[in-house]
Design goal:
The protein is an alpha+beta fold. It folds into 2 domains: 3-196, 2-Layer Sandwich (Beta-Lactamase); 238-347, Beta-Lactamase, CATH 3.30.450. It has 10 helices and 12 strands. It has helices at 22-42, 48-63, 104-108, 120-123, 128-133, 165-241, 260-265, 270-273, 284-300, 344-347; strands spanning 67-74, 80-88, 91-92, 97-99, 114-116, 137-144, 150-158, 245-250, 255-258, 304-312, 315-327, 333-342. 28% of the residues are buried.
Length: 349
Amino acid sequence: MGPENLLKEDLKTENAGYVISPVEAEARRSRVDRVLSTLAEETARSTGVDFLKVLVRHLAEAVGFKYALVGEVYGEKKENLKTLALWTDGKESDNIAYALSGTPCGNVAGKTVCAYLKNTWKLFPDDGMLKDLKIESYIGAPIFDSSGSPLGVLAAFHDEPAGDASDLRLMLSTFVIRAGIELKRIKAGDEKKTAEEGLQRIVREKTVELERANEALRHELEALRKYRDESSMLYGAVTESSGDFIFIIGADLRVRFINRTAAAFLGCRRDDMQGRRLDEIFPPSIHGFIMQNLEEVFRTGKPYFREEDFSSRGRSLWLGTRLSPVAGEDGKVTAVLGISREITSRFRK
């Protein structure tokens, strides 16, 4: 039940109720209009807690009480109240929080309007604050959120008895709707802030995780680069110091790599052979069977070995050549690695 239904609520009162004359009723309406007008002027530029501070001051002044508060219920069962604005004997006071059990606000929160016109501190002996202040009179109204769940309490109390519950009720109804609107606004802002803070926390956590992952990846890449460089140096040292002829031919039948031993045998500079087609290097008599062997490896994806007599620059020798396929990530043969070793001595014995 929302605060707009306040006027329909029954009051729990002590010494309440008497017939009001038309003249008195009109006077009360005029007083309410003046209170609303003053409140509107002083809160025109206020929102949130600042608005509530002005509101409780005007509530206390309107009903002639020393104390007024507006608070938000909290806890798993909404069993506690923390004030957002507290007016105490002519001045703002620090906010307080307390358990609702055994207090008049406990009879109000999530329930109904309550008014106690005298002996309030005796009616609630477990409420230490009422006892300390010798609170005689109290009136409070519940505030609900848009779903009807308890949201807070607006209350005023005094150290002297009150004479007319209906007058207090009229004044309280003037303020509770405005208090409810502002409390809902504050609650929505708090929820939005909590959600944003939660999102920011998640972003920070994920950023830290990403930074750690990037750092780990950087170390892995550094290790891979180091390994690649060391492997490249080792590979270069092995291929260049080898007496075998080592070469790599791409699928376009161009030389991708050839070591110095093979280039020297062919009478060429190694750098001059990089990227050249085989038919630009070998005469037709040699080029033909080399192409045939390479094409078979590219076609079948299987290694190939052959022993043959080979001549270059007037020098003749026997070579044992192994051609091995080099596959890409898709499994297709993209190059052929060739290693030729001189075996002439086997044929001259």
